[in-house]
Design a protein that fits this description.
Number of helices: 7
Number of strands: 8
Radius of gyration: 17 Å
Structural class: alpha/beta
Helix content: 25-40%
Distance between the termini: 49 Å
Bound molecules: zinc ion
Order of helices and strands: EHEHEHEHEEHHHEE
Strand order of the largest sheet: 3-2-1-4-5-6-7-8
Shape: globular
Length: 247
């Protein structure tokens, strides 16, 4: 008999607008062990899109508050909460402790670190981002499909792209993206390939438009080039990429 989701584990980076729905999706699917890492405290402005927290949690540490809420809702799930930053000092140990990594962080430095460490550790990564009315999803299968650096090479310079804090996020859209990311992680833990593996999915909610962009493993990617190449079973069918904002 194959292993069940109860024997699987996931690391979720961030317990906020993306990480909260990810954690709820993973726990309700029956994933047995959840590691969450977050170094923030709950603020009033979080409550529109961070479903693990309520008014009474304002001022509390997010890691502890999220763990308490998950324990109440899903007592059989083992939750390990880390009230710290996912950074150079913690990334490798945390990543190696889980079967899959889900990145719900809110900044480019953490997103590139998550991609680099997942690739180096051979852990599949579900990447997600949300800004204003748009979400992006990408699954990285180390050695098989392109990583964040294969796609973007490097984080944008500071100030070039507005942060969620500056530009804002449509609350329900973060919940939508987080739910999709959680479902993708469940697929990976179930032995499926993943719907966003090798393809960046972009959804723009105001126009209700989505498109997918192929993300191939680049020979000269500083993150992927040291890995042994693994054969892909079949090419992924993708729509032709279009520039952002085209009607
Ligand atoms: Zn790469």
């Amino acid at each position: 008999m194959s292993t069940t989701l109860a024997e699987k584990s996931a690391l979720v980076i961030g317990a906020g607008g993306l990480g909260g729905p990810v954690l709820l999706t993973l726990a309700s699917a029956g994933v047995g062990r959840l590691l969450l890492v977050d170094d923030d405290a709950v603020e009033t402005s979080n409550l529109n899109r961070q479903p693990l927290f309520a008014d009474a949690d304002i001022g509390q540490r997010k890691a502890a508050a999220a763990a308490r809420r998950l324990a109440r809702l899903f007592p059989t799930v083992k939750v390990e909460a880390f009230d710290r930053r996912f950074d150079d000092a913690s990334a490798l140990d945390l990543t190696r402790s889980a079967d899959v990594v889900v990145d719900g962080s809110d900044n480019f430095a953490t997103k590139f670190l998550a991609s680099d460490v997942a690739v180096a550790s051979g852990r599949p990564l579900v990447h997600g981002g949300v800004l204003r009315y748009t979400i992006q999803l990408l699954t990285v299968l180390p050695g098989k499909t392109g990583c964040l650096r294969c796609l973007f090479e490097a984080p944008p310079p500071p100030g070039a792209v507005p942060t969620c804090a500056d530009a804002g996020v449509l609350g329900p859209l973060a919940g939508f993206a987080g739910g999709l990311m959680g479902a993708e992680a469940v697929r990976l833990l179930s032995g499926e390939r993943g719907s966003y593996a090798g393809r960046l999915m972009v959804y723009e909610s105001r126009g209700a438009r989505s498109r997918t962009v192929p993300v191939r493993l680049r020979e000269d990617c500083p993150s992927c080039r040291s890995l042994p190449r693994q054969a892909e079973a079949a090419p992924v069918e993708v729509e032709r990429a279009r520039p952002e904002g085209q009607a």
